Structure formats: C-alpha cells, structure tokens
Amino acid sequence: MTAETTEQAVSTGPSEGRSRIEVRCPADGRLVGRVPDLGAAGVASAAKQLREAQPEWEAIGPTGRAKHMRNFLDWILDNEANLIGIMQEETGKSWGDASLEIAMAVDLINYYSGHAAEFLADRKVRSWGAAGMTKRLRVFARPYQLVGMITPWNGPLGGPMLDGVAALMAGATVLFKPSEVTPFTWAEASRGWLEDIGAPPVLANITGGAEAGAAVVDEVDMVMFTGSTRTGRKIAARAGERLIPCSLELGGKDPMIVLADADIDRASSAAAWGGMWNSGQICISVERVYVEAPVYDEFVSKVTEKVANLRQGMDPDGSFATDVGAMCTPAQIDIVKSHVDDALAKGARVLTGGKRAETGQFFEPTVLVDVDHSMLCMRDETFGPTLPIMKVGDEREAVQLANDTPYGLSASVWTSDRRRADRISRQVEAGAVNQNNVMMSTFQMTIPMSGWKQSGVGSRSGGAPGMLKFCRQQSVVSERIKLKSEAHWYPYVPKKSRFQAKMVRFLGAHDWRRRLGRAPKR
Ligand code: NAD
Fold first, then answer.
1. DSSP-assigned beta bridge partners for residue 472
2. What CA–CA distance (Å, rounded) separates 435 from 270?
3. Where is this region: Disordered (predicted)?
C-alpha cells in the first residue's frame, strides 16, 4: 500500500480544500498515507446518499441482505492478508493480535446473517383486556434509516464490525466514522463492499476527527459510539439535544480477582494474555489484579515469567513471530508511562518491563507490584501493557477494591468453587464477569455486553437485542372482526355508555363491593 493510493481510496464526498490527516506506522514511523478530514459538508452529502439507498435495502429483507453480507465475508477471507497488513501498518499490532479481528468479523457476519430473519420477524402479541378482544396485535421491527457508528483506534476492523454488521442486517444504512488515528483498514473494507463485491451503497466511510464525528451525530437517526468516557459524554449530550437514541460503549478498568483455590497456572497465563493483548489497548483488558495472600507469591512469579517471555515487535506478513505490538498513539504511550512513573514514585516495584523502547512506539510488557489505590495505575484507565498486582487478605477485600472505580465494564473471578464464583460475580459492579477466564464475555454474541457505571449506556450483542437496538418498534393493530363502529366512538348514548362504565367496574375491580358499584362502608 502506498500513501498516494490510499489517499485516493478513502476519499468520500466533497473533500476539496479540506485538510489532510497524516498516518504514520507506530512501529517504525513510516508514512502510511493521508486521508481527507471530511467536515460537516462531507458528512451531509454521504448521509443524503445513504438515506436515498435505505428504502430498497430495507425492502429486500434479511435474506436479500444476508446474500450481500456473505459475499462480504468471502471478500474478507480472500483479502485477509491485505487487511491485516493495512491494520498492522496503521496500528503497529502483531500479526497474531490483528488476525483475531478477522476471526471476529467472520463470526459476526455468520451470526447476524444467519439469525436476522428470526430476530426481525414480526412479533405476534396477545391482546389484554376486553377492549382488545377484537384486535390482532403485531410488532414490526423497522430499522432506523441512518445509523452513525463512531469507533476508536484500537480495533480498526473489529470495532466497526462489532455493531456495523447487526445494523446493516437490520436494514439500516450506516455512516461509519472510524478513528482518524487508524482510518485505512475500514476504508479498504468499505471499498471492498462497494467496489469489489458491488453491494448496495448502504454504508459510507467518513474520514476525519472530532469535527467529522460531531457532524455524524448531527445527521443520523441513532448513534452507536465506542470510545472514551470523555467523548461519550459529549455525544450523549448532543444526542439528548437532538432527541435521538445513543448507545455508548466506553472505557474500563477491569479487575481480575484471583482466589487461593484458583488454578494458578491457568490464571497467570490468562493475566499475561488479558493484560497484554493488543498491547493492553482493549477496553476489557485486565487492568488490575487482586490476589489472595496464600497464592500471591506463586501467581506473581508465574505471571512475571510469562510476561517477561513475550516477544515484542511488529512481525512481517503471516509470520506470527511476535506476541505484543506497538502502542497506537504517542499520547497513549505517555499515559502508560505516567501511570508507571506515578506508581514507582509512590513505592511500587517493576518486576519486568517498565519503560518504552528506544525505537518505535513500544512500551515493554510490564508487571508492577506493591501497588495500591493511591496510584493512577489502579484507578484510571491505563489502556496499555501493564499488570499491576495487589495482595489482598480475603475475597471481601478483593470485591471492595474491585468495585472502587467509576468504571464497570467487565471483570474476572478465579476460583475452583463454582458457588463462590457466582457469589462474587453477584457482588461485582460490572456488566460482565468471566469466571476462570478473561475477556471471553465480549466474544459471545448471544449475551449482552453492557458497561455499567461510567463504562456505558445500553448494550451490544445479546442475541436479538443486539440487532433490534438498530430498529424502532412499530406496533400494528388490526381488526379480527369487521364492526361498524367501536363501543367507545361518538356519539355517546347514555344507556350504552352507562352499561360500558358498569362493565369496566365489573371486570376490573378486585372485590365484589366495587364490582357491583356499592357505596363504601362508613
Ligand atoms: P476517543 O473517544 O478519543 O475517540 C473515539 C472516536 O470518537 C474517534 O473516532 C474520534 O474521532 C471520535 N470523536 C472524538 N471527539 C468527538 C466528538 N466530539 N463527537 C463525535 N465524535 C468524536 O477514544 P479513543 O482514544 O479513540 O479510544 C480509546 C477509548 O475507547 C478507551 O477509553 C477505550 O476504553 C474505549 N473503548 C471502549 C470499547 C467498548 O466497547 N466499551 C471498545 C474499544 C475502546
């Protein structure tokens, strides 16, 4: 991929006179390319085209849409190496980390294209009460015409796919606004959809930053946002002003609780992967660990060994030669460094890692001990390859510390006692709990992913609700019996209306005195 070709490939809508965003590879600083920063005009023109295309997209139904979606799946698999290569260039990920995004895309397409007809089927509902006896009730799921999907830089393919597949399969058109930090992967995927497989023009790719994102919120009928809590707040405020629904998947500070009866080999491997996958740049990554005193030393020594053995770097095409890649942005690496420096200044110790590499935007996979809640690394989202580990006296202390955060995205609990795991899960204030595993809840499309507290509003996935959130519920009432008039229509006739009032009382009251309209006893 060259800078010039990518610049052309991503142009969407009017871009003359607009500034360009330059993207450099975080691993080695080489120029990846430039994209136009499309402002409000670019967003408005793309939105208009999508609105024109939407009625036909809705009309072809889930089976028609699934055909295009499966062609897209074939295209993704046929272009796997190219997509991962682009992802690597703009993120500095390892090949292994990046390839998991392909797996997610495949799973999402198969799940939603396979279930859309069932999820979107008209719902027949029984009527209630005497007034509904002659009525036939159904609920149609009608998509929002235009959904805005604003995503962060940590998953350039997985991020848009996570909700984009469900929204498109619901019959909505989608205005995608990927992060300005990593605009190329989704630009290529959008190009594949529109040009290579010739699918209908029901998605548009908007390149640009905060201004373009804000313009998306101003154009759409519903907004799905994934990103920081700070930006989520702004989007919710604007969506509130416009009275459009928004669904927010925000930051996290996920705790891992390791109890004395846990399988420490497995738990330490999970901590190494869960803390370091994607260089820790995952909303649901393990951000802090609480370990019961009897197994603390064993856990720390095993995690340290596993983390120290991780290979860091951006490995070439398909080699799977490294584990952990680069940090996406200089700002993020600064945050990680500030958390480590703060911890060290307050008495923590680094057991492995602890500093940024001399070349490239890499931060060494790091294990910190002797940490406490006075430190940034235990309270603020680090979003980097660090594992601060704290010793706790018992499960009560672990739960209390796990909940000592404004976030509530997910958590993990490690114990060989199932009842204990359930008991603790019910005490943890988070939208998901993984028992003896990490991060797995997010990859299960049949259960909801919902951030509690400041980690989000609404949820994604969870079977049908993951698709129906992109629809409006349309209630349709039709007549079972052809009547000339309804009992409550004009004109009111005293005899008929009195009889009706008596029937309301007779059928609705809970006791005989009221049913028969007797006066209350004094
Ligand atoms: P960010 O909030 O800075 O940016 C996210 C997106 O919002 C980008 O596309 C950006 O251009 C856009 N944006 C910025 N300002 C905007 C505005 N005023 N109006 C509209 N759009 C605007 O987040 P980031 O730094 O790209 O990503 C990291 C954050 O994302 C972390 O906090 C991480 O936890 C979170 N995240 C959450 C999930 C989840 O599912 N809960 C998943 C991945 C990442």
1. 142
2. 11
3. 1-20
Q: Is residue 124 domain-shared with residue 97, that is, in the same domain?
A: yes
For residues 331 and 26, the answer to whether their CB atoms sit within 8 Å is no
Q: Atom 42, ligand 1: which residue's CA is nearest? A: 283
Question: CA-to-CA distance for 216 and 39, rounded, in angstroms?
Answer: 10
454 within a domain of the structure (yes/no): no
The Cα–Cα gap between 147 and 163 comes to 10
Largest distance between two CA atoms of the chain: 92
70-113 pLDDT tens trace: 999 999 999 999 999 999 999 999 999 999 999 999 999 999 99
The CA-CA-CA angle for residues 213, 219, 224, to 5°, reads 55
pTM (2 decimals)? 0.95
Q: Quick one: 338 and 313 in the same domain?
A: yes
Which atom of ligand 1 is nearest the CA belonging to 216?
20
Looking at the structure, do residues 221 and 130 belong to the same domain, yes or no? Answer: yes
Please report the atom of ligand 1 found closest to the CA of residue 251.
34
Specify the DSSP class assigned to residue 312: B
Residue 456 placed within a domain: no
Burial environment of residue 128 by CB neighbours within 10 A (0 to 12, 13 to 18, 19 or more):
exposed
Q: Note if 188 is an active site residue.
A: no
Q: Tens digits of per-residue pLDDT, 169-226?
A: 999 999 999 999 999 999 999 999 999 999 999 999 999 999 999 999 999 999 999 9
3-state SS string for 317-381: CCCCCCCECCCCCHHHHHHHHHHHHHHHHCCCEEEECCCECCCCCCECCEEEECCCCCCHHHHCC
Q: What is the token pair recorded at 422?
A: 């359930």
Q: Are 418 and 491 part of one and the same domain?
A: no
Non-local (6+) Cβ contacts of 329 within 8 A are 26, 153, 181, 361
Distances in whole angstroms, Cα of residue 211 to Cα of each of 174, 208, 299: 18, 7, 46
Q: What angle do CA 99, 105, 107 make, to 5 degrees?
A: 110
Report if residue 55 sits inside a domain: yes
Within a 10 A sphere around the Cβ of 407, how many other Cβ atoms?
25
Strands 146-150 and 173-177 turn out to be: parallel
The parent domain of residue 317 ranges over 254-441
